[in-house]
Amino acid sequence: MCGIYGSTIEYSKKQVQDKLERAKFRGPDKLDFKFFGDESKPIIFGHNRLAIIDVDERSNQPFTYNNSIHIVFNGEVYNFKVLKKQLEAKGYKFNTTSDTEVICAAYLEYGEDCVNYLGGMFAFVIYDETKQKLFGARDRLGKKPFYYYLNEKQFEFASQISSIQMHHTNLTISNKAISYYLAWGAIPDPHSIFNEIKKLQAGHCFSLNLTAYDFKERKYWDIDTNVKNPFQGSYKDAIAELDGFISSAVSTRLFADVPVGVFLSGGVDSSVVAALATKTTDSKVKTFSVKFNEKGFDESVYAQQVADHLQTDHHIIECNYNEGLDLIDNFTHFYDEPFADSSAIPSMLLAKHTRKKVTVALSGDGGDESFIGYERYKWMKQVNHLYNLPSFLRHTAAKTASLAPYYKLKMIGKGLQYEDINSLYIASVTGVNMSWLKSDFDYTDVPEKKYLYHNTKNLYERLTDFDIKTYLNWDINTKVDRATMAYSLEARAPLMDHSIVEFAQSLPTDFKYNGKIQKRILKDVLYQYVPEKIFDRPKAGFTMPFAEWFKHELKDYVLSELDMASLREIPNIDADEVYKMIQQHMNGSWNRYPLIWKLLVLKQWLKTNGRGYTIK
């Protein structure tokens, strides 16, 4: 896990150094850069290294293979040992024990199709000196970030947008991206907060001919919306196969030349990772969880029960209010474009303290999306029945529910006003009441809608496909990458192994959700190792008690930061409407904490990272 940087723009060594120093938290072990090409066609590669595999300096980057292949690489290729043996059989020689060198050899052997042979999380760029081209790729599910600037004869890329931003004179803030952010809580790929900077999309690769300056991007992996190879075995067979897939994914992710641990929330996903970690290694597994003192937010007791059963070396990190406040103040230094998932703060706290014990941590991310785990999926199925009613009856029910004094009924009432279940679902993840957002375009009209609106799968499968391409990619991956890299901690997600995602998609829906049990097959894999009774409780999210803090401990802070004058300075919002909504939160009539947090983050970003830029 590292930070990569590169450019064809003529920056001085001091400027390149500055750009790498800005992202040094991603890789504090070695900062280095090299100039290739000549004065007329400079190629700059830079790297912040967090040494995980082959920590020897021989594997430092920028790395050169076979004299003509130069690479900067962020991430891990978990199948590199297998791939290395295959390449050795073809005559390739290796001088390190790193996966970086294997990517270079795979590129020489398979060309741009090398991405199809790489299993893991990655963002890399290769400078092929012989062919005078750049080739780069981002992993299938978008675990690793990749930003780039392209303008005529100029190309610049980085793991953090701030590295491109620094010493750059041709950037403007995207007004459209601000609207996207206010709706989705994150900025969808391929957009970024700057008009001139894009994100390479998940499962995509690119080539840039340095002679003709011809940039080509293509998709090399996607979700199978047609389920071409459905699973043919029994449910028992499927459990055994999934157990094998997860065991393999966990085992390969435990490999490192530095200490490794597991994030353990006490939920199903992290527990199955922890269970199979203890199964696949002889060492005592270190596990980590966060404890909150506020009632209803402390899940650490459940994590402790799982840890006791698995006999892990468990560490509970108590969330300190003041420590959390410090992270809020420095939030945009690490999340260097607006990002509104408030669970980023406890994620940062967890990473900060976990890093004191280990350099790599396995997480349970990806289980909800692949195995139909979110509560909103169940709710959508239930609400879908109402769409079979005549529209006048549905609208009458919607109006009645909207007038109810209960928050959930109000939300249902507003939701039922949408014309179909697909538009309702998008509203459920953006906001069913967006009257406060002033946008001159349809912020819900993202290309990923095609995964939701097609008719080749049932509702559950379409919802999860859509979330894999949107929520998992734009939100979860961004949150975890920035939170962990802020403290130079590498996060690995076994359940996001593409073989597991593809296997889950091949399964019959009732293997994953039979109408009563969500994540059915994943739970049955887990119950082979941990007693079911430990998980007999409602599902909880990884959140902080912001709703209460904003009404009490942070009330003065919120009201001063988001007073009427400040609200009028925030683009694309109806300040009067937002002010009323903030007052609703303070008097307890409506929970508005997600909106409050979203606005606080945007204001902070505009004040710090966005200062001095024009909004277009």
Adjacency order of strands in the biggest sheet? 2-3-1-9-8-10
Structural class, from secondary structure content?
alpha+beta
- The helix count comes to 27
Radius of gyration: 24 Å
Give the mean pLDDT: 93
Unreliable runs, pLDDT <50, ≥5 residues? none
Strand content: 15-25%
Q: Give the number of DSSP strands.
A: 17
Question: What would you note in describing this structure?
Answer:
The protein is of the alpha+beta class. It has 27 helices and 17 strands. The model has no long low-confidence stretch (mean pLDDT 93). The radius of gyration is 24 Å and the shape is globular.
In short:
Helix content is 42%, strand content 16%. With 616 residues, it is α+β, with helices and mostly antiparallel strands. The strands form 3 sheets. Strands 2-3-1-9-8-10 form a 6-stranded antiparallel beta sheet. Strands 4-5-6-7-11-12 form a 6-stranded antiparallel beta sheet.
Helix/strand layout:
Layout: E1 2-7, H1 13-22, E2 30-37, E3 42-49, E4 63-65, E5 69-77, H2 80-89, H3 99-110, E6 120-128, E7 133-138, E8 147-151, E9 154-158, H4 161-165, H5 175-184, E10 197-199, E11 204-209, E12 214-219, H6 235-253, E13 260-263, H7 268-280, E14 286-291, H8 300-310, E15 313-318, H9 321-329, H10 331-334, H11 344-354, E16 360-362, H12 367-370, H13 375-384, H14 391-402, H15 407-415, H16 421-430, H17 450-453, H18 459-469, H19 471-485, E17 490-492, H20 498-506, H21 509-512, H22 520-526, H23 546-551, H24 555-561, H25 564-569, H26 575-587, H27 593-607
Parallel strand pairs: 13-14, 13-16, 14-15, 16-17
Antiparallel strand pairs: 1-3, 1-9, 2-3, 4-5, 5-6, 6-7, 7-11, 8-9, 8-10, 11-12
Helix pairs in contact: 2-3, 6-7, 6-20, 6-22, 7-8, 7-22, 9-11, 11-19, 13-16, 14-15, 18-19
